[in-house]
Amino acid sequence: MRIISGIYKSRKIIAPKNLPVRPTTDMAKESLFNIINNLFYFDDISVLDLFAGTGNISYEFASRGTQNIICVDQDYGCIKFINQTAEAFKMPIDTIKSDVFKFLEKSGLQANIIFADPPYNFSEAQFAKIPELVFQNSMLMEDGILIIEHSKHTNLSNLNHYSYSKSYGGNMFSFFEIA
């Protein structure tokens, strides 16, 4: 994977092969950040990266100037890799090793952008639980967005707070906002 833009533009990051991840493709990531760039100033926001995996999305935010980034993942290997990479690049990324659903139930954190990239084989009920907990616990700041990455075969448009989706190849990003 590579960083698309910002101070670390074109830097390649090689994740260990044994991590249980499916990193967002460069094409999809570039398209996503074009959308986000039109909505926010990167240096003024806070980001919560759920199911962070390799930290791919968080590195892109850090490269573009975001100073408040928290990654949540339950896999120790993923958290260790994110910590090592963030330290090597001197990126302002903090990590929390936790089951994402338990974290969402108990966390008092708020963010401008909450990005979730759960396993594509999640059930509809598991996908629905993400926005349910985010909005139930008021985790988005005013004018914030929740973005869930999922397969084009998954439809989240029936969930509360759904706003719109964008498709890039086999990837989809569904956007949720405070009503």
TrEMBL record:
- Which key words tag this protein in UniProt? Methyltransferase, Transferase
The record's listing under InterPro entries reads:
DNA_methylase_N6_adenine_CS, RNA_MeTrfase_RsmD, SAM-dependent_MTases_sf
Q: Does the keyword ATP-binding apply?
A: no
Q: Which residues form a coiled coil?
A: none
What PROSITE patterns does the record tag this protein with?
A: N6_MTASE (PS00092)
> EC number(s) in its UniProt entry?
2.1.1.171
Which Pfam families does the UniProt record give? Cons_hypoth95
The protein's matches in SUPFAM superfamilies, at most eight in alphabetical order, are given as: S-adenosyl-L-methionine-dependent methyltransferases (SSF53335)
Q: Which PANTHER family match?
A: METHYLTRANSFERASE
Q: What is this protein called?
A: 16S rRNA (Guanine(966)-N(2))-methyltransferase RsmD
